[in-house]
Amino acid sequence: MTHETTVLRTIAFEGAVAGNIVFWEDSDEPKVGYWLGRAYWGKGIATAVLSQFLEIVKVRPLYARVAKHNRGSVSVLQKCGFTVANEDFISPADGSRIEEFLMVLVA
Ligand SMILES: CC(C)(COP(=O)(O)OP(=O)(O)OC[C@H]1O[C@@H](n2cnc3c(N)ncnc32)[C@H](O)[C@@H]1OP(=O)(O)O)[C@@H](O)C(=O)NCCC(=O)NCCS
After folding, report:
1. Share of the chain above pLDDT 70, in %
2. Measured between alpha carbons, how far is 8 from 6 in angstroms, rounded to an integer?
3. In the CATH hierarchy, which top-level class contains the domain 7-105?
4. Which of 76, 80, 102 has most ligand 1 atoms within 8 Å of its beta carbon, as the pocket-test mutant?
5. Structure pTM?
């Protein structure tokens, strides 16, 4: 089920579905998230897609949560103007601890 303000787009590349990108209202932290199939990594697709998506979704500040070890995603966000707003961690059910950045686009 999607909230009525959710914006979801399929990412197509050379005629195939490569992934998706989504905006959703998340209380006081409106969020963007994206996913690409492994075969589509490292081609500049995420940077291009997020850049285009930010022309559709004008909500600011706009937030993204990203695992610190996800260097590719941190780089994508930084190239699109996001900066680190805070640091946090999540605790999945397997008992592990994943350090993450809360990143924000303010303008
Ligand atoms: C993260 C993800 C979106 C990146 O997509 P992508 O299309 O490969 O990203 P781009 O090619 O646009 O840019 C990635 C940048 O990070 C760099 N990068 C990619 N993987 C990297 C890694 N493992 N370590 C360091 N840098 C990395 C690239 O060199 C590039 O930087 P550059 O333009 O300065 O050379 C993609 O890997 C993905 O969908 N992963 C699974 C889901 C996910 O992690 N989603 C984000 C959750 S916050």
Report:
1. 97
2. 6
3. alpha beta
4. 76
5. 0.92
Q: 102: part of which helix (H) or strand (E)?
A: strand 98-105
Tell the burial category of 16 from Cβ atoms under 10 Å away from its Cβ (0-12, 13-18, 19+).
exposed
Reported as a single tens digit per residue, the pLDDT across 2-29 is: 567 999 999 999 999 999 999 999 888 9
pLDDT at 28: 87
What is the rounded distance in angstroms from the CA atom of residue 6 to the CA atom of residue 80?
20
User: If DSSP codes are grouped into helix, strand and coil, which group holds residue 82?
Assistant: coil
For ligand 1, whether the C-beta of 75 sits within 6 Å is yes
Question: Two tokens at 22?
Answer: 């989504």
Each domain of the chain, given as residue ranges in start order, spans 7-105
Which residue type sits at 48? A
